[in-house]
Design a protein that fits this description.
The complex is a heterodimer of chains A (514) and B (170). With 514 residues, chain A is mainly α. Chain A is built from 22 helices and no strands. Chain A is 73% helix and 0% strand. In chain A, helix 1 packs across helix 15 and helix 21 packs antiparallel against helix 22. Chain B is mostly helical and 170 residues long. The chains are: A mainly alpha (514), B mainly alpha (170).
Chain lengths: 514, 170
């Protein structure tokens, strides 16, 4: 019984924490659309009623760092700006799939050609949905509501801040909450490990199973790209990994229900069925041709363990493990963004309670001609401010890559530290600690590859192969520790150590027995 | 605000029919995936390392020599001997990386075996037999080079007093 309560709760908290950074970015973008670009500016940004709507929606979606929850307030603003339903859905489905950090990560984990095909696949999907949906339901947009212009200066900055607070307590937060609850529903109905055998390369039903599961799941772009890459490395079904990327990252329960309320059940079913049909067609199409060469196809994967209940019936120490899992999910950026999100929501709630007539926002939007005319600073038009902010967001996420992927010297320190911790954990049979350390070690190993790639010093093929050997042995150690097989774990721990030393020495250009 | 929206949402949902909830039920039914037992350690090893996986580069080199010399008359633990030849060629870079051989040793065979693997894969796709495949230009030389590398490496390890390569002696 404990497993059925705490398992879903853990998954909900993990999803909520993971969503925080991209959710805050979503509120920021929605506030920029509302208070800086305005209705007309947002309408123009997405190409108006021209043929450019869909390519623009795809391009902006690829560049802006939001997830499938953070995109809901943005879609709401697009709706209020008179943008067509097809374009809104196209943007809503593309924006969560990729962002500069996740694309970079993906480039080093899987074949670049495959990632290119996945990007092209996403363009095909949004174009198909947008064109078909707009054709089936013409004139599906709202007349844009009029908004007073935002005056420049500090008032403009304050208006964006207040708008972010309003977004945090707007009806869209209800759908965001539902999206996160969907993760709990999944964990409630999926016992631990049930999906481990659902993505085999030969399993024709793998993309179908993935469609059913991923629709309810909430996945951040970064998590999705790591899971997709993991499936590539293990030779799992490529069709299933594409389905996971599109359905898992792009769709969630909250987004679907937002669409149901905004567009109606039939129209939502229409785009959803088109989406499923196109995704499945592409998935089955790429399954064979993109299957990686020279990879022994594994019939199991751990990529979806995070969607299932972490505990089975009869698991012991559930409460203790749950607390540990939540603590592990409290990583720096998620906690900082979570605190920020909490503050936005609190201020938004206070504003709604204490200022129901929105006098503060009215004050911020009031233009004082006399004082504005006397000022000597250069007045930048809203379009320039919006362009600088949106481009700034993209540049910041590119700049963030350099922070997220530190230089090799720093990564090596982390790897060595974790390796020592891992040895100690295996030696002491601390299986929970091992289960926590191995994914971290894998993550740092991938960060080393991306960090070197970013700094124009990519690993050579010999180093890549040594890393591959290290990671494959690390995975075998993980399996041995999952089975709590001490003898097997000790054996693989030694092999991991040797592979790690060899990898490290390949980076130095030395070898073990010189 | 959220409470108001909840009421609005439920009302709207009822008005629109309960298709959304039916859809949810369908999703739940679709999730009737059986079995929740993951593979154990031995099964994991079998999945990652097929029966014809050589433990070391030395074993891979010996096996390649045998296949090339046997003129097609040889048994295999792989689905076919053609498949084993292809797999061995594809695995060589990884097996060298899993040994104590140097980067220079790795570079001397890496690009050749990658190219050969592509040619053998094309040949197996065209239905060519093992007798035909082992005549692929460059295969004999590559196998010979690999064998020499392994002999040199073994001699080096012997001189260092390591009777078995580090990867076997773990």
């Amino acid at each position: 019984m404990e497993a059925l309560i705490f398992g879903p709760l853990v998954r909900i908290v993990q999803a909520a924490l993971a969503a925080m950074p991209t959710l805050v970015v979503g509120w920021l973008i929605a506030a920029i659309f509302e208070r800086i670009l305005g209705r007309e500016g947002t309408f123009k940004l997405f190409g108006g009623r021209s043929w450019r709507q869909l390519p623009y929606a795809w391009l902006l979606g690829m560049l802006l760092p939001v997830c499938s929850l953070g995109v809901i307030p943005v879609m709401q603003q697009m709706r209020k700006s008179g943008i067509s339903g097809g374009t809104i859905i196209a943007f809503g489905l593309t924006a969560p799939l990729f962002n500069p950090i996740s694309v970079l990560y993906g480039l080093t984990l899987s074949d670049p050609f495959t990632l290119f095909v996945f990007c092209l696949g996403s363009l095909t999907i949004v174009t198909a949905i947008g064109v078909l949906w707009d054709w089936m339901y013409p004139r599906n947009w709202l007349e844009p509501e009029s908004l007073p212009p935002t005056p420049y200066g500090l008032k403009r900055v304050a208006a964006v801040f207040v708008s972010m607070c309003e977004q945090a307590v707007s009806p869209t937060s209800f759908y965001i909450l539902l999206g996160i609850l969907g993760v709990g529903v999944l964990a409630l109905i999926l016992p631990p490990g049930v999906l481990q055998s659902s993505a085999g390369a030969e399993d024709l039903s793998a993309p179908l199973t993935m469609t059913a599961v991923a629709t309810l799941a909430y996945v951040t772009p970064m998590t999705a790209i790591v899971q997709v890459a993991s499936m590539f490395q293990h030779g799992n079904s490529i069709g299933a990994s594409f389905t996971l990327l599109v359905m898992g990252t792009g769709v969630n329960l909250g987004l679907i229900l937002w669409s149901v309320v905004t567009f109606g059940v039939k129209r939502t079913l229409a785009w959803f069925l088109i989406l499923v049909a196109v995704v499945l067609a592409i998935s089955y199409g790429v399954n064979g041709p993109l299957h990686p060469k020279g990879v022994q196809s594994a019939d199991h994967t751990h990529a979806f363990d995070g969607y299932c209940n972490p505990y089975g019936i009869g698991s012991i120490n559930v409460l203790e493990s749950s607390w540990k899992s939540v603590k592990d999910a409290c990583v720096g950026e998620n906690v900082v963004a979570g605190i920020a999100a909490g503050l936005f929501a609190l201020i938004g709630w206070l504003l709604a309670k204490l200022d129901p007539k929105q006098t503060i926002m009215s004050f911020l939007l009031r233009t004082n001609q006399a004082s504005q005319g006397m000022r000597r600073d250069i007045v930048l038009p809203n379009t320039v401010i919006a362009a600088v902010t949106l481009v700034g967001l993209v540049l910041a996420s590119i700049g963030g890559c350099y922070l997220y992927y530190p230089p090799m010297s720093e990564v090596r320190k982390e790897l060595s530290f974790l390796q020592a911790e891992l040895n100690s954990a295996v030696g002491g049979s601390h299986w929970d600690e091992v289960a926590f350390l191995i994914p971290q070690q894998e993550d740092w190993a991938h960060k080393l590859v991306v960090g070197n790639y970013l700094r124009q010093t990519p690993l050579n093929r010999f180093q890549e192969m040594r890393l591959k050997v290290f990671l494959s042995k690390l995975e075998m150690l993980e399996h041995a520790c999952e089975d709590k097989d001490k003898a097997e774990a000790d054996l693989w721990s030694k092999k991991v150590n040797l592979a790690y030393v060899r990898f490290r020495e390949s980076l130095d250009g030395r070898r073990l027995t010189d | 605000m959220i409470m108001m929206n909840t009421t609005l949402f439920i009302k709207r949902l009822h008005e629109e029919s309960q298709v959304a909830w039916r859809y949810l039920c369908m999703v739940v039914l679709l999730l009737g995936v059986g079995g929740c037992r993951g593979p154990n350690a031995e099964e994991h090893e079998e999945e990652h390392f097929p029966p014809h996986w050589p433990n070391t580069i030395f074993e891979a080199s010996d096996r390649l020599r045998m296949i090339v010399d046997a003129d097609g008359v040889i048994e295999s633990k792989a689905p076919s001997i053609e498949q084993e030849l292809l797999d061995l060629l594809e695995w060589i870079p990884e097996l060298i990386a899993d040994s104590d051989m140097s980067k220079a040793d790795f570079d001397s065979v890496d690009s050749t075996v990658v190219l050969l693997a592509k040619q053998i894969e094309k040949g197996t796709g065209e239905g060519r037999s093992i007798k035909d495949l082992i005549t692929t230009p460059g295969l004999g030389e590559a196998v010979k080079t690999l064998q020499q590398l392994c002999e040199t490496e073994q001699a080096r390890l012997d001189a260092l007093g390591l009777t078995t390569p580090p990867s076997e002696g773990e």
